[in-house]
Design brief:
By secondary structure, the protein is mostly helical. The protein has one domain. The protein contains 5 helices and 2 strands. The chain has a two-stranded antiparallel ribbon. α4 crosses α5. The longest helix is centred in the middle third of the chain and has 29 residues. It is globular, with a radius of gyration of 17 Å.
Amino acid sequence: MLFTSAESMMLHDWRLMGKTSLLMFPIYGMGALLAPIGRGVDRWLQVDQTPLRLQDRVMRHGVLYMVLIFTAEYCSGAWLKARGICPWDYTGRHSNINGLIRLDFAPLWFFTGLLFEQLSKKPRP
């Protein structure tokens, strides 16, 4: 929605109309799985009980989430494209792979994953 709203702004349409597809909501919803996966990877990789430094944790989780988001986007896009119903097509765009993902979105997915992690944290009592 943010991207299509930004396109509207670039066309000087200040209503900022965005659009999406209902097919995207389960894909967006998979973002709720990122934090549990990150915690599981931390437990799996932690040999001793030394806590991970904040910057190391941010880098590990950011890269992990970026890869997971790219993987989910590519796999779901390939599945939808095979059925002729994929709502996005990056063909002809910079650094696209099979029209399904754009590698120049890597920083966006890095920070989006970290944002999803923060949003899905359980509040502390």
